[in-house]
Amino acid sequence: MKTHEIRERFTQHFVKAGHQAVPSASLILDDPNLLFVNAGMVPFKPYFLGQQNPPFPNGTATSIQKCVRTLDIEEVGITTRHNTFFQMAGNFSFGQYFKEGAITHAWALLTGSLEDGGFGLDPERLWVTVYLDDDEARDIWRDKIGVPEDRIQRLGMEDNYWSMGIPGPCGPCSEIYYDRGPEYGAEGGPIADDNRYMEIWNLVFMQNERGEGIGKGNFEIVGPLPKKNIDTGLGIERVACILQDVDNVYETDLLRPVIDEAEKLTGSTYGDGAPKEDNIRFRVIADHSRTGMMLILDGVTPSNEGRGYILRRLLRRIVRSARLLGAKGATLEQFMNTIMDTMTPSYPEIADNRERILRVALTEEKAFLKTLESGTKLFDEAVEELKNTSRAKTPKVLSGDKAFELHDTYGFPIDLTLEMANEAGLEVDMDGFNEAMGEQRRRAKADNQAKKHGHADLSIYREWVDNNPTVFTGYEELTSDAKVIGLLRGGEKVTEVSEGDEVEVILDQTPLYAEAGGQMADRGRLFAGETLLEVGDVQKIGKKLWVHKATVTAGGLDLGQSVTAEVNEEWRHGAVQAHSATHLIHAALRQVLGPTAVQAGSMNRPGYLRFDFNYTEQLTPEQLQEIATITNQAVDANFQVNTIKTSLEEAKAMGAMALFGENYGSKVRVVEMGGPFSLELCGGTHVGATAQIGPVSVLGESSVGSGARRIEAYSGLDAFRYYSKETALIEGVSRELKVQTEDLPERVAQLAEKLKAAEKEIEHLRSAQLAVKASEFLAGAGDINGFRVLTTRLPKGTSGKDLRTVATEIRNRVRDEAAIIFLAAEDGPKVPFIAAASDAAIARGVKSGDLVKRFGEFVGGKGGGKPDMAQGSGSNAAGIEEGFAALKSYVESL
Ligand code: SER
Questions:
Q1: Cα four-point dihedral sign 732, 736, 738, 744
Q2: What is the helix (H) or strand (E) element at residue 188, kind and residue range?
Q3: Which of 253-266 are b and which e, b meaning 16 or more Cβ less than 10 Å from the residue's Cβ?
Q4: How many domains, the chain?
Q5: Per the confidence metrics, is the pTM higher than 0.70?
Q6: Are 126 and 197 part of one and the same domain?
Q7: Domain check: are 283 and 239 in the same one?
Q8: To test the ligand 1 pocket, which listed residue (232, 234, 236, 237) has its Cβ within 8 A of the most ligand atoms?
Q9: 755 within some domain
Q10: Which residues form a coiled coil (predicted)?
Q11: What is the 40 CA–ligand 1 centroid distance (Å)?
Q12: Tens digits of per-residue pLDDT, 63-111?
């Protein structure tokens, strides 16, 4: 049974039982404690906690959630069941059915016949676990379902009490396992062997709230949830592994094609006979290709921190594994294409994003291959050095420091270094390497510790994020009365602050816009009586909490106090102009370049905006002009700017450009300008109608990193200022040249033409003048050893080029004699010199090159050329006369 069908059967089973089918949320949900969505229940958290009412008709839902867990990335390919990306299918009850309902539903689907839409699993092969004292669950399994008592096992907190690992909903759980048979391990149920007995479904009886604590087993239960809920998670990939009768989760219909592709590209083979290491690498390639692709699909791009770093690490592990398997060049394109093919039936949105996904992946691969190349160079040099230094008999060892440098600076994983060392007949000092790694880890830890005391640790904001999200009033008003509900100084909570303090203020409501969606935060003030705080920045924690960074410039402020919060009006005016202008430019850009020009980022502040987008080619001046024209026409059309609050689904149907990180059922805000002209999901502040933006002047475009380009523009008065500065400049030039501005281009062309002619003329005159001089110089030539010899110092400022002109001229005049000409001059700090010899002189053995070489020694310079003419340059003018004398005595000696 194909994975796609397993998904369908799951959903149908629960829809038939009245559950609302909810699409998967993005992998990136807004939770300060969560890098990626890692369980099916994450998007439903507020319903479990009773913070929001579930919007599902029967109070039940079902979903197949995309999940990423990268904690045990090193386990991938080693065990048979660890995927970094997996699909968690779940059914959820919010205060509706509880243990019995969950157990009955699960059993019916697993053991139901194929004809009836079930998975047709043999009940004899299913085992279950329950929490230590959960007799209620045990009774249901034994008495209602009929699972024999010896196939029901009890496990403790670590295994059978589920929480998110952080404060939130939690409860005891019951897990269902499938016995894969004796060839997979020892008898004795899940407590004996979790490889043979594979966990497939976890039923969580979500009834309590968890407090602070460590890990899975050691936390406090704060109290019961408002209602008893159900959260279940079935691993789609594991069920596929069983139903497709394959050995492990990397060989299912979704991932196996990637392994096949890797076999073709690397020349190595996968499977039973192959080395264990190789098999692991194949599985890593398959697993990471899918996770990487799905992350890019949801908007992650490689970087050096956070989510981007995980993606980078995954992609690099693929490249490295392929290389270790024998691939010579790039491979990601084939892997990505294959995995996109297998995943598209379940995720049709991949089809629209293929090009973008490939671009992101291939750019990263290219960069990494380059890194590998320079690392390989370093490695080769080290090997070369070792070969030259160590004696033949002793084993050659690459130092731990070198291996660490390769790892640290070039991103060389140690196994790659080991492999390469092995090929080169070397050993690697692993103790030294581990020591260097340990040292680095200690440093990183200390660094993290330091950050914790700064502001990087967001958990301090947790209570407000969960309980007192900020109400934003700034769409409607610029001044609001508010209450101080949080105060922080130096990253610590305080109850009062006083004059001169740099503080963070949390209000129950605020009109100040927090930096988001590229729009910079509002500037403004908080005041009450004598007290005044200047707000320099406002940042959001998660999507819900506004934190004002302010300086207390007068008076003091207490927790609980009432204040007036006021936006700086001028600032806001400029900011909305720039932000609305950004939307227009985005729309214009897509009209001109087509839909593949996808937004990659933007920034707008009063008067200025920049817009980054994915596009591989440089824009032509005509394209830029067109974008600027369309933008300003849209300003001129004075489109009404409407904001519509609607559901994500509705917004997508309207054609609004989708954003990442939105969730099913989320209310989103669509900003519309001119109907279909511009529709964007956006939380920013905007003008009321586009004419209020004022002029938009596009400054130009440039490249920002691989595959991305940037347009910059001024808006409003700043656009006017820019134009008037340009105009003043042009008018100044036209006054200077005494022509009308429209005649400027022609005039400048004329002038350039004239200048060129004048320069030619000057050159001509100079040559003529030098030619005249040549006769004068020649008069000073003397006879040495049957040669006519001329050594002359030309006036200061004569260049090497001029020397050549004169020397050529003189040489022409003494064609029939055995003549030697040597000229030198002082030209700034340089001392150019030249030697020329007539044919008759050459016939007697004179070589101009010899002459310049000899002379060069006296003026501190070098030179060279042909026998008939050679030139050089030195730096010591004081040696010129001595050099001439030396030349003369040389000619004497010939
Ligand atoms: N939340 C549980 C899990 O992640 C069941 O969905 O395993």
A1: negative
A2: none
A3: bbbbbbbebbbebb
A4: 6
A5: no
A6: yes
A7: no
A8: 232
A9: no
A10: 741-768
A11: 6
A12: 999 999 987 787 899 888 899 999 999 999 999 999 999 999 999 999 9
812 domain residue, yes or no? yes
- Beta carbons of 498 and 506 less than 8 angstroms apart: no
Check which CATH number belongs to the domain holding 486 and give it: 2.40.30.130
Three-class DSSP labels, 36-99: CCCCCCHHHHHHHCCCCCCCCCCCEEEEEEEEECCCCHHHCCCCCCCCCEEEEEEEEEECCCCH
Q: Is 455 annotated as a binding residue?
A: no
Residues in contact with ligand 1 (CB, 6 Å cut-off): 39-41, 90, 162, 202, 204, 231-233
* 629 and 611 assigned to the same domain: yes
Residue 164 CA: nearest ligand 1 atom is 1
**Mutational pocket test of ligand 1: of 202, 203, 234, the residue with most ligand atoms within 8 Å of the beta carbon:** 202
3-state secondary structure 721-787: HHHHHHHHHHHHHHHHHCCCHHHHHHHHHHHHHHHHHHHHHHHHHHHHHHHHHHHHHHHCCEEECCE
- Cα 283 to ligand 1 centre (Å): 25
Q: What is the CATH number of the domain that holds 850?
A: 3.10.310.40
Please indicate if the annotation marks 579 as binding a ligand. yes
| 407 marked ligand binding residue | no
Same domain (yes/no): 241, 96: yes
Q: What is the pLDDT of residue 457?
A: 56
- Specify whether 217 is located in the same domain as 90: yes
219 in the same domain as 278: no
pLDDT of 707 reads 66
pLDDT for residue 455: 36
Distance 821 CA to ligand 1 centre (A): 95
- Are 477 and 445 in contact, with CB atoms under 8 Å apart? no
- Domain extent, residue 882, equals 761-893
Q: Is position 329 within any domain?
A: yes
583 is in an annotated binding site: yes
Please indicate, yes or no, if residue 741 is contained in any of the structural domains. no
With a cut of 50, list the residues of the chain below it in pLDDT.
Answer: 449-456
Residues 683 and 821 in one domain: no
